[in-house]
Amino acid sequence: MAEKLIKQTCEGFASALASKSPVPGGGGAAALVGALGAALCSMAGNLTLGRKKYAAVEPDIRVLLEKGEAVRERLLELVDEDAAAFEPLSRAYSIPKDDPTHDAVLEDATKRACAAPMEMLEQCAKAVELLEEMLKKGSVMLVSDVGCGAVCCKAALECAALNVYINTKALKNRVVAEALEHRTDGILEEYCPRAAAVAEEVTAQLRGK
């Protein structure tokens, strides 16, 4: 890939996603959606700064913005890292099965392909934590954006998990596979409900319930 995927326009990325090209795929989409969720958290924070009503929490908001920027940037990097991991995996699958290197090369490439979606899970979990705090401390005028960020992060978590599972299914080393799956399951079980709770709280506030 001569051009980084993340440097494309929104239209260009969506077109590439819809094309016959195997990358970007679900992993890249997961990372991008997670980055958008983190960005919405930052939007709420940036629009809270400078308001007298929220002066007491301004130092906290600034910390949230710093952390959110790091999460957003890392998730954007993972769009291309996920795509880069596909090429060696594709080459590994093209090695004839009677080649003595086939199994080892394929196993290594498959294991490496788990790295990007696993980190997506970790970063999206961090984003959910930031959104929880932003909901409590950010401007009430921005709660819908915080809720949207939570929905994006929940979707990104679930998408990233699918990209872990499709690779762990192919791993012959079941100890490694099960460890990755256990970690993935744990993140989903903790953070998907937390993200959903943020969105539900926002809905309740907006509808006066």
The named CATH superfamily: Formiminotetrahydrofolate cyclodeaminase monomer, up-and-down helical bundle
Quick check: average pLDDT?
94
Structural class: mainly alpha
Number of domains: 1
Task: Name the shape in a single word.
Answer: elongated
What is the annotated CATH architecture?
Up-down Bundle
Q: Tell me how many strands there are.
A: 0
Fill in the CATH topology: Four Helix Bundle (Hemerythrin (Met), subunit A)
Sheet of most strands = none
Spatial separation of the terminal alpha carbons: 50 Å
Oligomeric form: single chain
Could you spell the SSE succession in H and E letters? HHHHHHH
CATH class: Mainly Alpha
Work out the helicity level.
over 70%
| Helical run tally | 7
Provide a quick synopsis of the model.
This protein is mostly helical. It is 78% helix and 0% strand. The chain has one domain (23-207): Up-down Bundle (Four Helix Bundle (Hemerythrin (Met), subunit A)), CATH 1.20.120.680.
Task: Describe the model.
- With 209 residues, this protein is mainly alpha-helical.
- The protein has a single domain (23-207), classed as Formiminotetrahydrofolate cyclodeaminase monomer, up-and-down helical bundle (Four Helix Bundle (Hemerythrin (Met), subunit A)), CATH 1.20.120.
- The chain has helices at 10-18, 26-46, 58-94, 102-113, 115-137, 143-168, 174-207.
- Helix 2 (26-46) packs antiparallel against helix 6, helix 3 (58-94) packs antiparallel against helix 5 and helix 5 (115-137) packs antiparallel against helix 6.
- The longest helix is centred in the middle third of the chain and has 37 residues, at 58-94.
- The mean pLDDT is 94.
